[in-house]
Amino acid sequence: MIDLTNRWRGLAAPRFRALAAAILFAAAPAFAQHMGPDFGAKGDDSQGSIELVDPKTLRICADPNNLPFSNDKGEGFENRIAEFLAKKLGKDLAYSYYPGATGFVRNTLNAHLCDVILGMPQGNDLVQPTNPYYRTTYAIVTRAGSELDGVKSLDDPRLKEKPHRIGLVANTPPGNVLAMNGLMASVKPYALMVDTRVESSGAAMIHDLEKGDIDAALLWGPIAGYYAKHSSEKLNVTPLPETRGARMAFRIGFGVRHSDQNWKRELNTLIAQNKTELERILLDYGVPLLDESGHQIAAPR
User: Is domain 4-134+251-284 classified as CATH 3.50.50.100?
Assistant: First the structure.
């Protein structure tokens, strides 16, 4: 069975690749420390603004080169969400950029250089999570018309009928299912820990799928959907179902400092009031969204 360590590391791979290891293997207090509720505050605190770096500005903690999530050109779906939230809040928008690696939270949110991370999995204590604003899953990407096109689970007998090359990011949940099905010999591995400034395991895997070097790609849903949507080939993205021994789907919320209770409540209100608009942004980027019953949410026509 998959343990919590691999579960968190696998989920974090698309977001905070090297940070995932730091969360698990470094001393937790060193990464969860904060400067106190009033550090860096400006203005009065009558509306809870004492928790914020600048009450008049929505300050986002983000990776400068990690599409489809964010980049310093404002091209990611979290950039779009940031713009949407800033407009709703009537605030200016600013970013504190730091590579998604060891020290991300410590050097951005907990250093009071910004006030919110826009994509954090539920269930970790490095930050205080808001309510989730989307639920997504790992996915299998195949070339349209290929022998594996239409595969909906890793139990599909077509994966065993003859040797197929399957792309897998190391230490992510789909690997547990492949192992249980005796398919690890078919795996072409891709690194979990990469420097997002210079490389992307997801982009490399989709490139190999396009060339025919692999026959299927197993990726975190937002990455699978984004790169498939921008591929020169017709690629199909199928969410993987929950499987015994490997959790595939996760809820994603915003992350704030543990001390920022009023700010968390304000963001929770925004999430509740703008669910449809947030989902529309995500679907526009190809993110496979699931409802609480596990059914895929269709993009609006």
Answer: no
- Start-to-end CA distance of the chain, whole Å, equals 40
pTM for this entry: 0.82
Written as one letter, the residue type at 257 is R
Tell me the H-state helices in the chain.
Answer: 4-12, 17-25, 28-32, 77-89, 104-107, 158-161, 174-180, 201-211, 221-229, 261-273, 275-284
32-77 pLDDT, tens digit each: 222 222 222 233 333 444 689 899 999 999 999 999 999 999 999 9
Give, in degrees to the nearest 5, the angle at Cα 286 between 283 and 292.
Answer: 55
Contact predicate 255/116, CB 8 Å: yes
133 or 15: whose pLDDT is higher? 133
Query: Domain locations in the chain?
Result: 4-134+251-284, 136-239
Helix (H, G, I), strand (E, B) or coil at 107: helix
Q: Which CATH number fits domain 136-239: 2.30.29.30, 3.40.190.10, 2.60.40.10, 1.10.340.30?
A: 3.40.190.10
